[in-house]
Amino acid sequence: MTIAVTLLSMKDTATLGFILAKIYGAELLPPPLLLQGEPGAGKTTLARCLVENLPGGRPEDGVEVSSPSFTLCNAYACSPPVLHFDLYRLEENSANEDFEEAVGLAEEGTLLLLVEWPERIIKNSLPQKFILLELSGRGQERQAAFSGWNAPGFLEKLAELAQGENLPVIFTDIRIEK
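^ that's the sequence the OP posted. Answer follows.
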């Protein structure tokens, strides 16, 4: 199953972060979220919107979401706890012990793993189950395409919530392919 959404504004991006937080906040073993897209596509913005909508993830809770491009990883003390990796500075097909340890913790269900630039890491270091979000476009209008690997039920829940009527914004363009 693939779900594609057109994000027409920053409010749409914030709403998508809100929807993802509803799913990730309720999941017992949340699948890692891998974020792909060119620089400026909105990966860090979406990560911030997701974390800020998790319990304990707001700036007033002491959590400030920023790009971990220079630190490689930021940790956010929310519920579930989040490790946010940005692998942009790694060489392609790199191995990284910290990342591999984080994958292990995510697979145990102890944290949510957000990964920007997952294509930089060696393929056998990727999690066994994950959600891939490919972002494209620049400026206000962006495309967000979700696909899942070994994460049953996640995309179905996303489709259900994205088409819900109790959202601050109703997405104008949702495409679901099974």
